[in-house]
Write a structure and sequence with these properties.
- The chain has no helices and 12 strands.
- It is mainly β.
């Protein structure tokens, strides 16, 4: 079984910064892409940023220049550094790994895994 556990959410004032972390654990052979999504109240979940094991990144237009995604492959951990936060960044942030190579009963399998989410509130 593979799990993603996020941490680092909380309340921050507009213009402030926050850093999210997401650690993967379990029987992991390889994780190529990891990413962050968010879902604001009453809205659909949307992509924030992704990063491959080689370091290639992709960002939503709404966060470019303000958010930075990074990862530590040795620790199977991905980070999201958020700066110049706006009230519209308020959402539950979810970590995602769309294709985790793992073993189930000694057989190689590929799983998509989501974290439980961490709430980020940007408000004065």
């Amino acid at each position: 079984q593979v799990q993603l556990v996020e941490s680092g959410g909380g309340l921050v004032q507009p213009g402030g910064s926050l850093r999210l972390s997401c650690a993967a654990s379990g029987s992991i052979l390889n994780i190529n892409t990891m990413g962050w999504y968010r879902q604001a109240s009453g809205k659909q979940r949307e992509l924030v940023a992704t990063i491959t094991s080689g370091g290639s990144t992709n960002y939503a237009d709404s966060v470019k220049g303000r958010f930075t995604i990074s990862r530590d492959n040795a620790k199977n951990t991905v980070y999201l550094q958020m700066s110049s936060l706006k009230p519209e960044d308020t959402a539950v942030y979810y970590c995602n790994a769309p294709r985790v190579a793992t073993t189930v009963a000694l057989v190689r399998r590929y799983l998509e895994v989501w974290g439980q989410g961490t709430l980020v509130t940007v408000s004065s």
